[in-house]
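Aim 2, interim progress. The first record below pairs a target sequence with its C-alpha cells.
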Amino acid sequence: MIRVAGYCRVSTEKEDQIHSFEAQQRYFEEYISRRPEWHLYQIYADEGITGTSTKKRRQFNCMMKDARSGRFDLLITKEVSRFSRNILDTISYTRELKALGIGVWFMNDGIHTMAPDSELRLSIMGSIAQEESRKTSDRVKWGQTRQMERGVVFGHSLLGYDVKDGKLMVNPQGAEIVREIFYKYGVEKKGIGTIARELQEAGYLTFSGNIRWSSSYIMKVLRNEKYTGDLVQKKTITPDYLTHEKKYNHGEEKKIVIKNHHEPIISRDLWELVETEIEKRNLRGSFQAGHSHRYGLSGKIQCGECGASFVSRKRYRKDGTAYRRWGCLTAAKEGRRHRDPQGKEAGCSVGKMVSDDLAFSMLKEVLRSLRMDEKRMIHQTAAAAAESILAWQDEEMDGIGGDKKSLTAVLEKNMEEMIFDGSNDEILCRILLNHMTVYHDGHVEIQLNHLPQIWIFTINVDHPSRHRQ
C-alpha cells in the first residue's frame, strides 16, 4: 500500500479562490480513493499564501517535516506553480524528497520526479512559474503606484486618523491627543519622555489601546507629516518579489508625495515649530528616540564650523573587527567647502573624523585631570543624572528603580566601574559628557555636565594631546 499525500495552495483569500481551494481538496480525496493501491495519508493545504517563498507556508513546512519522518511515500500536487513559484525552492525541495525516496507527481504538467528527465522539465516549468510571478508582481506594483498617484491611501489607521476605502478620515478623539502632543512639545517645550508620562498619567490610550506611552511613540507622532494634511507613500518598498521582505525606501524608488491631500489635524505653523525644536534638541545632544539611544556619543559631538551634529559610520579594521568613526553631517551631505552660484563659500570644510576610541580616550583624560575628590564628583554627577533621567522618564532606564536614591546608587556604581575599570564607555559618555566640539584646525573642545571648565585637545590620527584648559 502506497501512502499518498496531497498538497494544494491558493494565493489569495477572495471568494472565488476559496471555492478553488475547496475544490482542489475534494479532487485529491476523490483521485486517491479511486486507486486501490493508494492510501490517503493527509492533504496539506495553504490558503491565502504566496508561492514565491515557503517561509510562511505553514502546511508546506509541516508536509516537509512529515516527509523527513517517513510518513508518506508519494506526494501529488496540481501543477508546479501550486508547489512553488520559486525555481530554487522547486528544485531544492523535490531533490530532498527524492533523496528520501518520495516522488512528486505534478498532475497537470505530467511530471513525476522519479523519471530520468524530470529535473530538466521541472526547471523549465519552474522558470515559467517564477517569471509569471515576477510579471504579476510588476503589474500589482504598477497598479498600486497609479492608485497612490490618484491619492488612494495604502496602509492602516493611526492615531488621529481612520483609513477607510483608501481615504484618511479624522478620528476626533485621537486627533485631540495628537494636537496635545504637538502643543506640549513645540509650545510648552516639554521633552518626549515627559509628554509620554503625562499622557499615561492622564489615562489616555495609544492607538493600539495600550496605556503604555513611550518616548519613541511620541517621536513617531511628531515626525508624521500626515498630521499636516500631506501624504507621503512608498516609505517602505518590497524590492524582491521572491522574499516579499519590506525595506525602508532610501531612494531606490520614487516616493509619492501629495500636498494638502486630506484634512489636517495640526497647522503648518505648529509643524514647522516642532520640526525646528527637534533639530535644536538634536544639536544640543538631548535624548531622542532612535539613533541617539543607540550610541553614547550620538548628538554629543558637534561641528565647530557649521554647528551640525557628527554622525557615525561603521568601519572595519584589517582583522575584521568593527568600529565607528564620527564626522560632520553637513560635510557628509554637501562635501567639502565650495562656492554657491553667487560666489560665496558654502558647505562645511571640517573633515576631521573622530573614532569612538579617540573620543573615549579624551574623555577619560579629562576625568583624570580633575582636581577634586573623585568619589564626591561621582556621587554629585550621579545624583544630577538621576534627577534628569527621572524627569525624562527615558524608557531605556526601565527596571533600574523609580526613586532618586536607588537610581543614584545604580548610576554611581556604574560610573565607578567605568572610570576606574575602563568599562562601559558608552554610558560614561551619555552621563558625563555635555558636548565635544571639533574644529577645522584639529582642536577639540570638551565640556562635562555640571562643570564650567572647557578642556582643549589637539587631535591627530592616533593620539590626542591636551595642551590647555
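The second target in this work package is listed in the same format:
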Amino acid sequence: MEKEYPSILRDTIDFTSDTEVCNIGYYEGIFTDGRPVRVEVWSSHNVVNATIFFSIIDLEEKSEEEVKNLLVSNEIIELREDNAYVTEYEDANENIFISINVALEEHDREINKCLVPLKDYVI
C-alpha cells in the first residue's frame, strides 16, 4: 500500500500582489514517491524566487543536500547555482513541510531554472 502524504494548505494565504511582492504563478504536482509538491514563484526587488513545499514525513533524517536533490531528481528545479535555503513550515492544518527557497533570476540573469509549468493565481 502506498503511503499517503499531506498536501500543504495554502487557501488561507492572500496571494494578491502588493508593492513588495509580485506573485507570478504556482504549480501543484506529485513526486515519484507519491508526495505532493507545491511550487510558488514570486518576485521581489528584481529577484525571481521559487518556494517549494513538500511533506517532511520520512525525510526528517535526510541532509539538506539530499532534500534539495529531490527537486532535481523530480525535475522541479534545475539547480545551476546552489543557493537554495531550506527551512520547515507548518500549515494551518498543523502539518510540517520542508520549504525550499531558490533564486531563479536576479536582474534578468538566470540563476536556476524552474522546470514545471506554472498556473496563474485566481483573484
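The chain has a mean pLDDT of 91. This observation will shape the mutagenesis plan for the next reporting period.
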